[in-house]
Amino acid sequence: MMIPINSQPVLDSSDQILAAWTFAFASSHVGMSATRSSIIRSLGETVNSLNLVGNEGWELPVWWPGDNTGGNKIFPDNLTAGRQIYRGLYTAVSFLTLGSAFGAYLHSSSVALDISGEQSTLLHNACLVSAALSFGAAIASLVNASPLGLMPSFEATTDDVDNSGSLAGIRRDDALKFTTKGLTRITRHPLILPVVPWGIATSVLAGGRPCDAILFGGLSIYAMAGCYAQDLRVIREEGSVGTVFQTESRDTKEGVSEEEQERTRLRSFFEQTSFIPFKAVYDGRQSLDDIVREAPWLQFFLGTIAGIYVEEKILQLLAEW
Questions:
Q1: Under a CB-based contact definition with an 8 Å cutoff, are residues 66 and 84 in contact?
Q2: Could you read off the pLDDT of 55-107 as tens digits, one per residue?
Q3: Using an 8 Å Cβ cutoff, are 78 and 47 in contact?
Q4: Is residue 172 within a helix (H) or strand (E), and if so which, with residue range?
Q5: Per-residue pLDDT reduced to its tens digit, 12-23
Q6: Tally of CB atoms within 10 A around 11
Q7: Least trusted range by pLDDT, from 31-45, 54-68, 118-132
Q8: Which H, E and C letters describe 84-133, residue by residue?
Q9: Cα–Cα distance between 221 and 100 in angstroms, integer?
Q10: Could you give the CA distance from residue 293 to residue 297 in angstroms, rounded to a whole number?
Q11: Do the Cβ atoms of 269 and 180 come closer than 8 Å?
């Protein structure tokens, strides 16, 4: 007697397409980050071979937070040229893969789960609060930047400091990102790790369908994997990370390359911080008192309020699609 086998796939074709695009987004980001140094060098050499490096007529606006190696020139040297083009490619790949994943998500034919009753109300509220707090933490991290994050760091200028390159009394100085402060005392990834609880919460709030788990749960997995892979590259000294492309000269040492100085700063930063939130507090490397005193609470509060609004709008748009 033959036992019938259910040949119906776990995921339908639309969910499989969604999974493919979500994987493409995550793998391309991790892959480009892992090979970042070699890509930047190759791009810089290519731009130089086209005689585009050192062009005096190509300049950034004075307020643009880009590299300051060659002033406001877009391509002052090979390395900076490679970095600028790398940023553009990284952004383009993001829009292509994540945009395609979201498009596949909207067209997915997954069947919604029935999560009715009092428990679903409690679950809904808990997930909404979790998503909002995650949004607030990410927003707060924009003013409490990590050397592993995407945001540059700024400071107010003073009369005894050279104010060239500043705008409205504020100038960029990525060296500040190496100093543990506020959120970076909690985790060295304050911008990306909040995606983990946000993705899990949003997958539930959106209905708990397979497509919800694939997209939003996939983003959670990507956030953890991407941050961990970034840590490994720093520990193994396999390449540059974050956006610390150039720092002010206050800590420079004669005869030591910029790359080696950045590596030394990163090692010191890693010794003082943790990947897992609050682990550095637990093992005594950081203090809760310092976190409470230094954390950007106003930005966190405003970001959380905005997070509630944004999350509800996202859910409303998805429900009306």
A1: yes
A2: 766 776 665 555 545 556 677 778 778 888 888 899 999 999 999 999 999 88
A3: yes
A4: strand 170-172
A5: 888 999 999 999
A6: 15
A7: 54-68
A8: HHHHHHHHHHHHHHHHHHHHHHHCCCCCCCCCCCHHHHHHHHHHHHHHHH
A9: 18
A10: 9
A11: yes
Q: CA-CA distance, 130 to 200, in Å (whole number)?
A: 9
| The model's pTM | 0.81
Distance between CA 27 and CA 21 in Å, rounded?
10
Residue type, 287: S
pLDDT given at position 113: 47
Closest CA to 205 of 303, 105, 301, 125: 125
78 vs 42: CA distance, rounded Å = 9
Nearest to 143, CA basis, from 306, 296, 297, 307:
296
Q: Residue 248 is encoded by which pair of tokens? A: 């002010």
Tell which residue, 279, 268, 269, 271, has the closest CA to residue 186.
Answer: 279
Beta-bridge mates of residue 170: 156, 167
- On whether the CB atoms of residues 186 and 291 are closer than 8 A, the answer is yes
- Per-residue pLDDT tens for 219-259? 999 999 989 888 888 887 765 565 544 444 445 555 556 66
